[in-house]
Design goal:
This protein is an alpha/beta fold. Helix content is about 30%, strand content about 15%. It is built from 10 helices and 12 strands. The strands form 3 sheets. It has an 8-stranded mixed beta sheet, with helices on both faces. Strand 4, helix 5 and strand 5 form a beta-alpha-beta unit. Helix 5 runs parallel beside helix 6. It is globular.
């Protein structure tokens, strides 16, 4: 986070302070608070975590990583008891932050939803805080957020990105108040190697880097670039818990989902399989793909909109895991944003890494699959060029909700 965008990073020979735990954020902190106090406490914690930053960058970093809430216009629908008719709880993904959920939050606010977004434990501070966190702490944050939202909204909806989507589905199976799900790049299946990721604890005292899958520059203030083996293992354990709860069950509440067939982070085919469980007549999937996909048995074709993820005029060859929830206008991740995701070149090809970060033409954009990388210099796509169309699909879905 400390280096400028255009200055290439030096490969680090040793782990830095950010690769240790901060002691501030590995469990859910605020079970006894109301939501406004939770936001205030989280912002203060984030200020301590990032105290070394210059003041302007500090406030920007705190604001982007902090949980938040939005209230709809006063003319939005109310329930019979005076609460807002609908509310939505937003959950970001693994290594991410609430920043990525801001555009979706504003969309929901405009649709009359009371909006709350949580910060999952281990996130928003420094990558080392994912060394010891457990997925149950993430579930605790979601359960608490749903409870707080229920005090202000009659109908509870959950919206999650990646691991946040996994948490959303899991909580919906435990909480009968949940009336709908919005899932983006859901993490329903990851590599089986994640199950063995925590074996490093047997020998990590000998090899300080053993707990890490990747040690990266961490130049993004709203998302960790370094990645711990524990984070991979906790994701695997969460998915295993969810699959156990889903076994033999169908999901009977309306589900809106969006996924990319080229996703290199999670297996998007598991989303297609999940949609066979989503038996509500209103359930819909927007599936971004470079070529038409064959749907699994049990998924009515009319419930899946297959959208081309090739946008030649923007040099976009596919959609990445990261790209679905952010509009092209986003100041940080958007088409002309101040951040370029080029981590696939670090540290193996520093010349390409530097050229990619400069956005030196011609730079392709897409998911970092082997096939795409062979096509030329590649920037990982971090925004959705069809975001307006995605909003339109969600709006239609919401208008049809009972």
């Amino acid at each position: 986070m400390s280096a400028s965008r255009d200055k290439p990073f030096q490969i680090q020979a040793v782990l830095a302070a950010r690769h240790t735990t901060s002691g501030l954020n590995t469990s859910f902190c605020c079970a006894g608070m109301d939501f406004a106090d939770y936001v205030a406490a989280s912002r203060e914690m984030l200020r301590r975590a990032h105290a070394a930053l210059p003041p302007d960058l500090l406030e920007r970093t705190v604001a982007g990583n902090a949980p938040f809430e939005l209230t709809p216009d006063e003319n939005a629908a109310r329930g019979r008891d005076g609460r807002w008719r609908r509310g939505v709880l937003l959950m970001h993904g693994l290594t991410d932050s609430p920043y990525l959920m801001r555009p979706l939050a504003e969309f929901f606010r405009q649709q009359g939803f009371r909006v709350m977004a949580v910060l999952l434990p281990g996130h928003g501070t420094q990558p080392g805080d994912l060394l010891d966190v457990r997925w149950q702490a993430w579930a605790d944050a979601v359960a608490w957020g749903a409870e707080r939202l229920s005090r202000e909204a009659e109908e509870i909806h959950l919206a999650g990105f990646s691991v946040g989507a996994t948490l959303a589905v899991r909580h919906s199976l435990l909480d009968e108040r949940v009336r709908g799900l919005f899932l983006f790049s859901p993490a329903f299946r990851v590599s089986f190697l994640a199950a063995w990721a925590n074996l490093h604890k047997l020998y990590s005292w000998l090899l300080p880097a053993a707990p890490w899958v990747d040690v990266k520059p961490d130049d993004d203030p709203y998302k960790y670039e370094s990645f711990t083996k524990n984070a991979a293992y906790q994701t695997h354990a969460l998915i295993r818990d969810l699959n156990g709860r889903l076994k033999g069950r169908e999901v009977h509440i309306p589900v809106f989902a969006a996924a990319s067939a080229d996703d290199a982070t999670v297996d998007s085919r598991a989303t297609l399989v999940f949609m066979a469980r989503a038996q509500h007549v209103l359930s819909r999937l927007v599936y971004y793909t470079t070529e038409p996909a064959q749907l699994p048995a049990g998924v009515p074709p009319g419930r899946v909109a297959q959208v081309s993820s090739v946008v030649p005029e923007q040099n976009i060859v596919s959609f990445s895991h990261l790209s679905l929830v952010l509009p092209p206008e986003d100041a940080h991740y958007g088409r002309n944003g101040d951040y370029s995701n080029c981590l696939h070149y670090f540290p193996g090809d520093m010349a390409k890494y530097a050229a990619c970060r400069r956005n030196a033409p011609p730079v392709l954009q897409g998911e970092v699959t082997e096939q795409a990388l062979r096509a030329g210099l590649m920037r990982r796509l971090t925004y959705n060029p069809h975001f307006c169309a995605l909003e339109s699909s969600m709006r239609q879905f919401i208008e049809n909700l009972p």
